[in-house]
Amino acid sequence: MDVNTGHETGSGNGTFGGKSCLEIVHSMKILSHYAIRWMIWRQQSGQDLIEYALMAGFVAVTAVAVMPGYGNTISQIFSRARSVLTKANGS
After folding, report:
1. CA–CA separation, 23 and 29 (whole Å)
2. Which residues are bridge partners to 16 per DSSP?
3. Which helix (H) or strand (E) holds 89?
4. Predicted TM-score (pTM) above 0.85
5. Cys-Cys link to 23, which of 19, 30, 42, 55 (CB 3.0-4.6 A)?
6. Is residue 60 a part of any domain in this protein?
7. Judging by DSSP bridges, how do beta strands 15-16 and 19-20 pair with one another?
8. Under the phi-then-psi rule, with left for phi > 0, alpha for psi from -120 to 50, and beta for the rest, what region is 18?
9. What is the pLDDT of residues 37-55, one digit of tens each?
């Protein structure tokens, strides 16, 4: 349909610019699908949360990799603290 005149611009057989109505609808669905995917891709509202979660995971993995060497030392510190508290309590 011509915007200025309001008349059909097709050939009168249900085609527009050489494409059928079904082809145009299919093309529109594909375009809308890609538009939605693009909007979701561009959305950055949860990006900070994901970055913090990744950073926390990295710190945890690094801590686990470093801590096995210090496990016995930490255990000894807590054992000493327990014995000092037990003596201070008089039990």
Report:
1. 10
2. 19
3. helix 71-89
4. no
5. 19
6. yes
7. antiparallel
8. left
9. 887 777 666 677 788 888 9
